[in-house]
């Protein structure tokens, strides 16, 4: 989170079985396609008054269930996320001794997940920095957050939007392979930030894989030989880069289980197979990957996505993307305050 202008790592909450079941269901949903067909009046009215989790009537229904004392886990996907977010909110507020009222949440680039997260935030009266304006991302990709957390794609002077535009006007392609590994899941994706800039409106996943059968807990608890599962893990790690038509410029990892020795060895083997010669300009945060690759500064891999989200939130608070003015304007205002004889607040 951002505390007194500094990004700090505060709290961590483990997902429960209901959350894992929800993520497994949502990850199996097909990606939505843009549909420009006009909806009928019936469709528009029905969607607005539906008791679906992500509608306003769905929120009303959840509040009624809470008043009636129904257990959270019994009736809604939104409550599953809401419960975890509330735990995180309470743990954070206890740690910093002040209220948290606005957040930025990074998720895998699956629209249904983002919709449910936003509905849960609304139930908790937490405002979001994501999807609240046409000038900012509708969804905040986890890969983009980790890319920023490792110091990539960030403006030297982000408070001047025109300087940012000039800094990232190079057409050179940036292609980031992101690997998240936890006790419960393997998630890989590739993003191609426009001009290499992080935290922008248009950074989304080009491709992704989410596998709940290859989480570290499952691999370690499997009876008998584990070689087949580790072989499957290696195959999944190499699938996206092998099929991707462009050379990778960044390989970034995150997650609580990334540093498990056998996983790191498997990842290195998979990458060596698809990239026998590491590109000279390759940047990574994998410890000891290759001598030729540039290794980024150390970031706590458990909090990497959260750190990127906090960086995004800080920029949202300090700079507005839809309006800007020359840096000399404030100096002009200050001179006017000093030299104008009558008292006028020129702000």
* Spatial order of strands in the largest sheet: 7-6-5-8-9-10
Beta strands, count: 10
Stretches where pLDDT is under 50 for at least 5 consecutive residues are 29-52, 342-347
Structural classification: alpha/beta
Sheet with the most strands? 6 strands, mixed
In CATH, what is the homologous superfamily of the largest domain?
Answer: ATPase, nucleotide binding domain
Question: Which CATH class of the largest domain?
Answer: Alpha Beta
Average pLDDT metric: 79
Number of domains: 2
Backbone CA Rg: 23 Å
Silhouette: globular
- CATH-scheme architecture of the largest domain: 2-Layer Sandwich
CATH topology of the largest domain: Nucleotidyltransferase, domain 5
Secondary-structure element order, N to C: EEHHHHEHEHHEEEHHEHEEHH
Tell me the distance between the termini: 30 Å
- Number of helix segments? 12
Strand content: 5-15%
Task: Bin the helical content.
Answer: 40-55%
Key attributes of the depicted protein:
about 350 residues; alpha/beta; 2 domains; two-stranded antiparallel ribbon; about 40% helix; globular; disordered C terminus
């Amino acid at each position: 989170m951002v505390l007194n202008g500094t990004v700090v790592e505060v709290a961590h909450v483990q997902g429960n079985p209901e959350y894992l079941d929800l993520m497994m269901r949502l990850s199996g949903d097909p990606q939505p396609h843009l549909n420009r067909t006009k909806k009928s009046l019936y469709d528009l009215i029905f969607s607005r008054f539906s008791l679906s989790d992500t509608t306003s009537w769905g929120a009303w229904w959840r509040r009624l269930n809470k008043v009636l004392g129904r257990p959270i886990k019994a009736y809604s996907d939104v409550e599953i996320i809401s419960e975890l977010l509330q735990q995180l909110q309470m743990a954070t507020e206890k740690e910093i001794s002040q209220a948290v009222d606005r957040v930025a949440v990074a998720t895998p680039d699956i629209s249904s997940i983002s919709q449910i997260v936003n509905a849960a935030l609304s139930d908790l009266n937490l405002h979001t920095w994501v999807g609240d304006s046409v000038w900012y991302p509708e969804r905040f990709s986890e890969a983009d957050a980790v890319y920023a957390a490792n110091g990539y794609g960030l403006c030297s002077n982000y408070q001047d939007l025109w300087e940012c535009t000039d800094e990232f006007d190079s057409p050179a392609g940036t292609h980031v392979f992101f690997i998240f590994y936890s006790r419960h899941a393997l998630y890989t994706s590739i993003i191609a930030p426009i001009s290499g800039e992080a935290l922008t409106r248009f950074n989304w996943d080009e491709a992704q894989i989410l596998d709940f059968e290859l989480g570290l807990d499952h691999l370690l608890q499997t009876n008998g030989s584990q070689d087949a599962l580790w072989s499957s893990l290696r195959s999944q790690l190499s699938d996206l880069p092998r099929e991707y038509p462009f050379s990778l410029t960044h390989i970034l990892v995150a997650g609580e289980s990334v540093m498990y020795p056998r996983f790191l060895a498997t990842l290195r083997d998979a990458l060596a197979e698809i990239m026998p010669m590491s590109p000279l300009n390759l940047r990574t945060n994998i410890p000891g990957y290759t001598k030729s690759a540039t290794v980024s500064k150390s970031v706590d891999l458990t909090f990497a996505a959260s750190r990127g989200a906090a960086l995004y939130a800080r920029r949202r608070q300090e700079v507005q993307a839809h309006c800007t003015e020359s840096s000399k304007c404030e100096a002009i205002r200050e001179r006017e305050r000093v030299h104008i004889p009558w008292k006028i607040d020129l702000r």
